[in-house]
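User: Fold this, then the next.

Assistant: Folding the first:
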Amino acid sequence: MPNDKGWKPRLRNWITGRPGEEHVTLALSVVIGALVGLVVVAFILLTGRLAARMYPPGVETAWRRVMVPALGSLVTGYLLWKFFPQARGSGIPQTKFAIFVTEGYISLRTVIGKFVCCSASLASGIALGREGPSVHIGAGIASVLGRRCGLSPRNVKALIPVGASAALAAAFNTPIAAVLFSLEEVLGDMHAPVLGSVVLSSATSWMVLHLLLGDEPLFHVPPYHLVHPAEFLVYAVLGIVGGLGSASFVKLLLVMRVWFKRLPPSTRWFQPVAGGLLVGVLGLFLPEVLGVGYDYVEKVLGGDMLLRTVAVLAVLKIIATATCYSSGNAGGIFGPSLFIGATLGGVVGSLAHAVFPSWTASPGAYALVGMGAAFAGIVRTPLTSVIMIFEMTRDYSIIVPLMIANLISFFVSQRLQRQPIYEALAHQEGVFLPGDEAREHLAGMRVSDILRKGLPLQADATLASLAERLQEANRNTWLVARDGVLWGVITRAEIMAAGHARVVRDVVGPESQFAYVHADQPLSLALKKMGDAGLDILPVVSRADIRQLLGIVTLTETLNAYGLGRNDV
């Protein structure tokens, strides 16, 4: 019988009138929205106050531009290495890890570390943004509250996109785009059953932001008007440029991150200084490179910067942001992607206006569209980027050019860099998040529906004994493991072709490549992989470690699940 004693059950009953976790989750959505809104507002204010102390208004000294980012990254790098190892980077991949790998768990220490380290590093001038970290902080707060209220892991996981949506709504002042991003990118399912909770938390957080900081869009832009229908061709060109710039940024970031990861582990605490020092040196020549640069974005949107300066800033921001992120600093890529897009759009708009002055709008309009194009190309959320730019500027007339440029940028970036940035970052950490194949409707059959335990063969077993086992079980495939670590699979054909080999490890080694699936993937994918590889057993592995065996699926049981097989196993 459930225990009715203690404050948790009483709180649950007081809120809902009945002990149902779904009702607690819905009530917590309002609490999470309000609390996350307050924390994000504090994050914004603290970062701004610290930046004002580090760069006092009216005090322009070259040494500050170099020393402050370098020292800031040194201090936060040590804190991240010593106390908060899970607070590095933007936080979006870690938020997705919580949903798909760790049963919704994000520690309170990580939330605190993200808040402290990001506040310090962003205030020091690191070329990263606050929105990604805000999402991680919001998801962490939701996770902590869900666990403290005694919710099951399933319902704690459901709160992760709730906290993420609340954080983005407050950080960007975009409640609708926050909902779309949480469903489109964080959860990967636009039809998720948590839609109501996500909307509720986003609206609550947005109201808290307005009560404390007022009702102001992130950017103020002049009204946009389509000058001539031929302008759509220029916006198409801008989409191509945005896609090329996005793919270049993502590729550079991923390559640099691999290089930093290959350095000795003893240097990990010192690596962030590389990003801080580079930003400081670039800031000597162009102070606009420092920080996320929203003030300068507004200048580009207003057409108040020289073409040469805007073009140079586009290149330097790509290099600076990629270096800051790859070296292990705490901060996100949302804000820098908007900066990169605005500068790319400003360059295209300035050139187009110089050649066709009577057919094109001012460069600021193209800078605005460029922001959405770069966001769509880098983050790979074209729908979210359209709504986000609209909400940030509140200019509906720019929607059609935005859609044209965003879709083209998304297509070009996808062709040049197949793997989305957050999925690629997860793979570099050895975590395999769901890709497009896992975004089928949740009502479809999953691998977990027929998952069962499997007994792998030890690598020291003889091939003769394995052949007998396959014959007795009427199987074509068997799993191979050693000391609890999955090595791969071996088939009857591989045994026949083994030649003079006598034991299994002579055929399958610890580094062998093999087909596998994850428990949350569609069952249709398991069937396809078995068919492609000629297997009748497929290992089901952890997303955090593909050498960790969770169970198996068999061809017979898979066909039975589709009503095509026999009843025997």
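Now the next one, as you asked:
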Amino acid sequence: MAVELDLADIQGNILIPYAKQGFLKGRFMLFHIDNDNADAGRKFVTGLLPKITTALHCPSAQPPEVAINIAFTWYGLLALGIPTRTLRGMPDEFIDGMVKRAPMLGDDFRKGWKDRWDEVWIKSGDSYGPNENTVHILVTLNAQMDPLTGAAVPALAEKTSEIKKLAQKNGGITLVAGHNLPGQEPPIEYQDLSAILVQENGKYIPTPKEHFGFTDGISDPVFEGQYPNGDEQALAVGSGALDGKGNWRPLATGEFLLGYPDEAQETPDATMPLDFSRNGTFMAYRKLHENVASFKNFLDKTAAQFGAVTGIQSHDDARETVMAKMAGRWSDGVPLSLAPTADEWRKFNDTYKAVDPAVDPAGAAAREAALSNFSYHDDPEGTKCPLTAHMRRVNTRDMMAPTPEDGSVLNNRRRILRRGLPYGDSPVGTTDSDEHGIVMLIVCANLFRQYEFVQQQWINYGLDSRAGSDTCPIVGNHSDGTGKEPAPKAKFVIPADPASGHPPFIADGLPQFVETRGGEYFFVPSMTALRMIGMGVVDPT
């Protein structure tokens, strides 16, 4: 039986990414409930309720100019007066919070690691407990863009002001500033975000790129009930799970929303009352700084070496190939599994041209489907797509399946929804010290089994990729080999097809490309739960 979701009860940005709905600008605000003033906190939630955007409102024929959503840390729920019996039913990793989980996530890889975080997260406290600056509430604003200026619509500033006034009106609610490195004055009040834009014919056009130059947001999981009219069955091809007969199906709803059966055909134990958890989910907020200059310098240096070893004469082709081997896709999103060489990449793009969905929706849909419809069963040694490429790590598809038709139960239980937007600019000549990166919102029903497993075992470890302790070449922790870090010199191996006559290529001395600048775990309640919180009627009995 098809799953029908109560869209009016589910917050927006969970089912479908806001960025794909035209919300190209973002602003994230963090709040603290002073002195655990539960009454002030409840009034703030109640005042915000009419402004919250649900999955019913987005997508819609008339979406709001600004989509507003809210989430809470465990300490935030405690400050709101949620009963202990309900709180103790929350999962351990959510109760611990991200700082306490730093050793598992690899965030403590470097000495003085937390000194590199944004001030707002440093002030939020440590593993010993909360303080007067601990983050309790996250309010996200995702806005549409004015194509003539490239700026957010004026409604973003208006809604920001309304929310600040709402916090001040109720008293006891403080906006926690400091979305910047320590010592910068004045502290930045909120985290601004934006899709990366290009100018064409006097207008600003959004791109799906992040600062390294990769096309992002491809092959996000598709699950039951996610799309209306049963569209998820078609969209699940390449983005869902294999059914044992070689057919694709949507993943179980319970992998991403609480209160539904998951891939084990179980509805996991949830905190009581069930109305408090159902249609809610968990989210990892991760601000990731990108060392763009180091990445580009590494590519240029490595491309020359790689071209000499593999016989690729064109520096541009060699550079693009190294970039693709690290990611598992070419920079425009074409998977290596379908186009292993630069010539095959160009042939793929001749077949599936990049077209404007507004001009040719059928052509755009065909290309989008082709970008996801592939597997790894015919590439067991990684000569097309390296086993240690970023994409092959975070979504192993059928790589660890007993047969190509079966798919991988292990992989099906590790899928995550990726939301968020880039921040900052990275023009020509940018340096690593400039502010640019991405704020990732990782959404899943079980942070430990899904997000933390992927981060620890597949990104910062290489056993399942048959690569020992080699980490992800893009977002993994990298040691420079000087002995300052507790790890050997980082390397990335690009296998070679034996028929080519070329040896494997080993890129060593990978610098650190991505650095964590802070974050936290949040619970994203349903609208029902938000009303319960606002009225103070959460009763676990």
